[in-house]
Specification:
Number of strands: 8
Shape: globular
Order of helices and strands: EHHHEHEHEHEHHEHEHEH
CATH topology of the largest domain: Rossmann fold
Largest sheet: 4 strands, parallel
Structural class: alpha/beta
Strand order of the largest sheet: 2-1-3-4
Low-confidence stretches: none
CATH class of the largest domain: Alpha Beta
Radius of gyration: 21 Å
Mean pLDDT: 95
Distance between the termini: 16 Å
Number of domains: 2
Amino acid sequence: MTTDPLPANHPPVPSPKIGVLVANLGTPDGYDYWSMRRYLNEFLSDQRVIDYPAWKWQPLLQTIILTKRPFSSGAAYKSIWNEEAGESPLMTITKAQTEALRAELTKKHGETVMVDFCMRYGNPSTKSKVDAMVAAGCTKILFFPLYPQYAGATTATANDSFFKALGDLPWQPAIRTVPAYFDDTDYIDALAQSVERAYAGMDTRPDHLIASYHGMPERYLMQGDPYHCQCQKTSRLLKERLGWADDEIVTTFQSRFGPEEWLKPYTVEEVARLAKDGKRNIAVIAPAFSADCIETLEEINEEIKDAFVEAGGETFTYIPCLNDDAAHIAALAGIVTKNLQGWID
């Protein structure tokens, strides 16, 4: 293929590339008060996350919540912080995932595919990475929110941020977004492998595997959000892949916030109930999280574990997220390749 030479005064035009931009939730830059306040303000001001009218919500957020919560959230982040790298575990893991995915896609498609990551909240921002991809010559961008199950407060708001980043560009690339992959065979298989590895290393088989998903208000389900149904299907497919009985996996929801009813059963209450019913050994997996973060490392492995032990439980095993596990990266690369069809051979 030949191209016409550019006029002498023409701005430089880089060789065309295809961008693959993966997105995760985000992380504060530090666990100090002001870093936490900036992060929480951005997160809790998102109408997809908290959909109360701004006139009602913002005064409460700015005067009460953001005065107190940065201290408690900062302490939680401090307990899991990667001090050596000076960043949260989510940032460390997302970088590792991106590097592994880049290597896998380069092996398949060569240097024409550019792989990078962004965060919906905090840094690196979606806009900064979209701008960098366009400047590098990406005429097509595949945007990949790393949320297996779709929710308005996760997938949709990540897409919103991506679309907004395109708004100021004089020459917009062609775009695609990756849909939820809650029932992708390779993703389910990667989950099952992680369970099998964990169980193989245990002296006593757990009485139950708790599949704990991030929660949301019940009314979101009533308004048509498919998240709850997709979580239930992920649990069912995982159970079928493992060849287990129906009662061996229990689906629960964590991270309740605010006064209204959220999806049930609540993980923290369910593990305590199981312990009181004589279930002394349980394992917990978090299939909605592509990478370990504050909700898994601190909430599950500390708060929820404490609730189980205090209610009489004995052995609590947290099975880590898929992170940069080889089977997970292979699954993500397969999803990307499917979604690049027609753009690349």
